[in-house]
Amino acid sequence: MKTFILSRIAAFGHALRGWMYVLKTQHNAWVHSLAATMVILLSFWLQIPPRDWAVLVLTIAMVFTAEFINTSIEAVVDLASPQKHPLAKVGKDVGAGAVLIAALAGVLIGLLILGPPLWARLISLFTGN
Description:
With about 130 residues, this protein is mainly alpha-helical. It has one domain (about 25-125): Helix Hairpins, CATH 1.10.287.3610. About 90% of the residues lie in helices and about 0% in strands. α2 packs parallel to α4 (about 85-125). The longest helix has about 40 residues, at about 85-125.
């Protein structure tokens, strides 16, 4: 049992090092972090319902997961093919495309969930209703 617990602790350490690596080396991860922070703060301010929170949390996780997988693909491709190769470029481009799809879906989901209550809140702020 002790070995199991120690190996789980080590696994968390590896995961946290991976997380820190992405945040230190990937500029888009900072953009995702800023966007996620703004969405979370806006969601608190708008007092969105729990079901909408669940969708937003899953969406944020989807975007970060895509970014993390893309970063791992890039690292493995660079290791396997240090010189430029057309298939290495395809692998990297497809990974980046996955991040783009996730991010665009995240923007759309954010607009669908946060847009109407934000619009209503802004209208009430400006009209005094």
